[in-house]
Each structure stands twice: as C-alpha cells, then as structure tokens.
Design brief:
Layout: E1 3-5, H1 11-16, H2 26-44, H3 48-61, H4 66-78, H5 82-93, H6 99-119, E2 123-126, E3 132-136, H7 145-163, E4 171-176, H8 179-184, H9 190-196, E5 198-203, E6 206-210, H10 221-237, H11 244-254, H12 269-280, H13 300-321, H14 323-334, H15 339-346, H16 351-361, H17 394-407, H18 411-424, H19 429-441, H20 445-458, H21 463-475, H22 479-490, H23 497-506, H24 510-523
Helix pairs in contact: 2-3, 2-4, 3-4, 4-5, 5-6, 7-10, 10-11, 11-13, 12-13, 13-14, 13-16, 14-15, 17-18, 18-19, 19-20, 19-21, 20-21, 21-22, 21-23, 22-23, 23-24
C-alpha cells in the first residue's frame, strides 16, 4: 500500500518564512509587514499569481528591501525557477538583517539549494498544450513519462469536475530517484519515509513522487500522482485551511478518479481488516492524532489505518450528501470556518452525528483469513531485490528451494516446491505469484489464473500477481481480462518489461499498442 504525505500546512510560513520587520518603523513598517504576511499566506495557499502581483508592487516601492528580495526568491521557488530563487535569497542574505531572519533565511536557502542540486540534471517533457510538465532522471525513468502525462491530464479533468475548480498551469511533476532525494527536498527524514511509507508529496506548487524503481515491487504510482494532485487543488481552493484529515481523506477518496473504469474509491482487504480490528478494540485514531501529518505517525500500519479512516469518512459524506455539499463545505473552509463545522453545516447536521453514522458503517469483520499487510520496501544495495524474505514460516523454505530450481530451469520441480509453499501459506501473494508463474510456464494457464486471481483481489497492490494473471489470461485468449490485469501491473511496477510486451499483444487500442511495444523495446534494450 502506498502512502503519500503532507508536511504541516503552515510549515513554510511558520518555520521558514516568518519575517520580523524590526528595521522598519511607523505606519510604513506596519503596511510592509502586513503585505509580506499576506504574500506569505498567498504562497502557502498556492495563490501564486496573487502573490506575484503584490510582490511586483512592493519591489517598485521597496526595491532595496532584503525582505522583499527574500519573498521574491520564494515566489521564484514556487514557480520552479530554483536557480533564480537561490540567487535572490543569497542576495538577501548579504544585506543587514537580524539574527532570527538570518537563521530562518539560511534554512530556506539550504532547502532551495538541495532542490536545485537534485533537480539540475532532471530532463523535462511537456504535454502538447504545455499545461503538464514532467521532470525525470534520464535512463529507465523515461518509460514513465508518457503514462505520467496521461494520468495528469485525466486527473485534471476528474478533479475539475469533483471540485468545480481548475488550478492554473503549468502543473509540475518531479519524479525523484530515491527516498533520500524526497527527504532532501522536503521537511521529511528518510526514517519517517521508511517508517510510514511516505513516498510522495504535494508542496510548493509541485507534485513530487519517488520513482517506483526505488522500491522492491513498485507502488501504485499513477494513483499516487492523482492523490498528490488532489492536495494541490485542495490547498488552493481552501486557502490552505483544510486540516490534514480532510486533505488526506479527500485525496484518498479521489485518487482513482483519473481512471476510465473502476474509478471509485477502493478499500482493500488489508485496510478493511485494520478498520474492523480498530473498531472492535476501540483503537480508532482520532482525526486530531493525524496532525500535523500522517507521514509522522509511528508505523506504516498506523498510517494505513489513518488513511482507511479518513477516506471512508469522506467517501460516506459524498455518497450521502453529494459532491455539491462537499464543494460548499470547502468554500466555508476557505472563508475560515473550522472544517468540522463546515462539513456539518453543509450537510445540515452536526459533526458528531456525521462521525457516529460513519462509525456505524465501519466493517465489523472479514471473511477468510486476515490478509497480510504488505509494507512498502525501499531497495537497498545493488543486488536483485528478494521478496522471499517476507514470506513467513515453513512456506519460506519451500519458496527458496523453488526459486533455486526455477533459476536452474527445472520448472516442473520448482512448481512442486511452490505448491508446497502454497499449501503452507495459501493466502500469501508472493507464493501465489510464483506458483502461477510456474503453472503458466508448463502450459497450464487455467491453473495459473485459479492460483492468482483471488490473491490479486485481496492484494491489489502486488504487481507480480497482476503481471502473471495478465499473461495467463492472454494465453487463454481472454484479451479484455488480460488487458485490465496488465495495465494494473504497469501502474504499479512500470519497469518490468513483460507486462508491456504482453499488453502490446493484448490491447485492441492502436495507440496503446504502439506505446506498449515501444516500452517493451526500451526496457529490453532492443
């Protein structure tokens, strides 16, 4: 399960951009201070055009003010011009300023410098209309670009309909090469990223995701782009007044909205089980416990529970009261109304009633065994990542033996060992994927489908399962089912060439066929 994170909504204002104006005096000082505070709020709320207009006026009336210069640098930072932002902040730091300003401005300068250094070598590709811009590291990540541009365009349409508002472009997406890179350009630490599985952010007027290549089995990166896009839209339309629980609940609710089909919010079996257990044991997180960021919760499981709670709360709200009531509530939030009061007023009820009704609908149990929580795992070292270490108990022994036999080309013998592992751990998607792979390899596509399809439903973020399911369905001549499964595999792990090659043969869409054939050649180095 993928996680996205948001740093505290006023982080830039409260930590980096607080500017004392002790060197000014009188009415002019008060006016300048008020203008700068307004600009700070505008930037935080992604009202970039409004902030730019104010800064242009201030630069004419206070051309030598280091504080105005500093804000001009921050405005450039929000526009993605990191080099000019650094130049302006550096120049402001050469001026006579007090110790507090120098300390906070230096912290800001360090952030800008880290961002500039990490993005300096990124390549850039724009959509035809210039509205969407994707930055990426040359090499394998290039395969992501056409998909990312398509997701941005589809998400833009879906979110414009959902919110009745459209953010101005260009929409900037940066695909970062590692979790360390994400930490370097944000307020997060690598430890927090590993602890909660936070691998994407929406901040400073841009979307940032970690390349799926940095994780052992990828993650739903396409849905993650949309999730972060929701944050961008919400920050703007609510003037950055929406609390974390409202932001994350709405983002999770809408993260699949870019899809042509199956675009409704999905609560997988693992999240379902977490909710049921937390409700039964009276261990639901309060919405306030999610402040200031889900990315700062103590574990991936706690983060998963938080997302499950707020997304089901928001999904119920929209299902019962409608999209227009949500839009009305968000407008109230933008005007400064507390989010709880805004949602209640728009629904003509009380927030406690909303909470009670939501809790009453939470799952109380789950059919079958409790699913495993498959944590996001960052790659370490240069060796081939191994999922086998995540398999527990006796099944791991059979799985490792099966892998050894598979690597030596002894497919039938490997299948026997995988079958033993499957009997020991029948609900494990890693084991099931291996068993299905060998069944397909020996020509039994029906057995492969039977082994893996139930597991893809219970573990929808496990890319190898979708990949082998798609291949097996294609072998059976079920082109439509194959196409759906293969697309799902690509939107989790786009660096496995096999789903691309198979989808090029499965799809009936000429444009998709050409795209997948090219990705197949590119990833196989042909």
């Amino acid at each position: 399960m993928r996680r996205s994170g948001s740093v505290p909504s006023r982080w830039v204002v409260g930590t980096l951009l607080w500017l004392g104006l002790s060197s000014a005096s009188g009415a002019a000082a008060q006016t300048l201070e008020q203008e700068l505070e307004t600009i700070s709020e505008d930037l935080s709320a992604l009202q970039i055009e409004r902030a730019g207009a104010r800064l242009e006026r201030l630069n004419k009336s206070h051309p030598k003010s280091p504080r105005v210069m500093f804000y001009r640098g921050m405005h450039k930072f929000y526009l993605g011009d990191y080099q000019r932002a650094q130049q302006l902040v550096d120049e402001a730091l050469t001026k006579q300023i007090d110790a507090d300003d120098r300390r906070s401005w230096t912290e800001t300068r360090d952030l800008i410098t880290s961002t500039l250094e990490l993005t300096r070598e990124l390549q850039r590709e724009r959509s035809r209309d210039g509205r969407y811009v994707v930055y990426f590291m040359e090499g394998p990540d290039r395969v992501l670009v056409p998909y990312a541009l398509g997701v941005l365009e589809a998400a833009d349409r879906a979110l414009s309909a959902a919110f009745g508002a459209r953010v101005p472009g260009p929409i900037r997406l940066e695909i970062l090469p590692s979790a360390a890179a994400l930490a370097a350009v944000s307020a997060l630490t690598v430890e927090q990223i590993e602890t909660t599985g936070t691998i994407a952010l929406s901040k400073w007027n841009r979307l940032m995701i970690t390349t799926p290549r940095a994780l052992v089995r990828g993650y739903p990166w396409a849905d993650t782009i949309t999730h972060e896009f929701v944050h961008m839209v919400l920050s703007r339309i609510t003037e950055e007044n929406a609390p974390v629980w409202l932001q994350e609940g709405t983002a999770k609710m809408l993260e699949r909205s870019w899809r042509k089909r199956d675009s409704e919010m999905r609560l997988d079996a693992s999240a379902h089980a977490l909710l049921a257990a937390a409700r039964k044991e009276d261990k639901l997180l309060t919405f306030d416990e999610m402040h200031p960021s889900i990315a700062m919760l103590p574990s991936q499981e706690a983060a998963a529970l938080a997302f499950a709670e707020v997304s089901t709360f928001m999904e119920r709200y929209v299902r019962v009261y409608g999209r227009q009531r949500l839009q009305a509530a968000l407008q109230r939030v933008a005007e400064g109304t507390d989010a709880r009061k805004a949602l209640a007023a728009a629904a003509s009820t009380t927030f406690s009633s909303l909470e009670d009704a939501w809790k009453a609908e939470l799952p109380t149990g789950l059919e079958g065994p409790t699913p495993r929580h498959l944590e996001l795992r960052l790659k370490s070292g240069s060796g081939k990542p191994d999922e086998a270490q995540e398999v527990e108990g006796e099944a791991r022994k059979y799985l490792r033996l099966g892998d050894l036999l598979w690597d030596r080309g002894r497919t039938l013998a490997a299948k026997l060992e995988y079958a033993k592992a499957n009997r020991a751990a029948p609900d494990d998607p890693i084991v099931g994927s291996r068993l299905a792979r060998t069944a397909l390899a020996v020509g039994d596509a029906s057995a492969a489908v039977a082994a893996i399809r139930p597991l893809t439903l219970r573990y929808p973020d496990h890319a190898p399962g979708h990949a082998v399911l798609g291949a097996a369905e294609l072998a059976l001549g079920h082109r439509e089912q194959a196409t759906l499964a293969l697309r799902e595999a690509i939107f989790i792990n786009p660096f496995d060439p096999t789903p691309h090659c198979d989808l090029a043969r499965a799809t009936d869409e000429a444009r998709e066929r050409d795209l997948e054939a090219e990705a197949c050649r590119q990833l196989r180095g042909q």
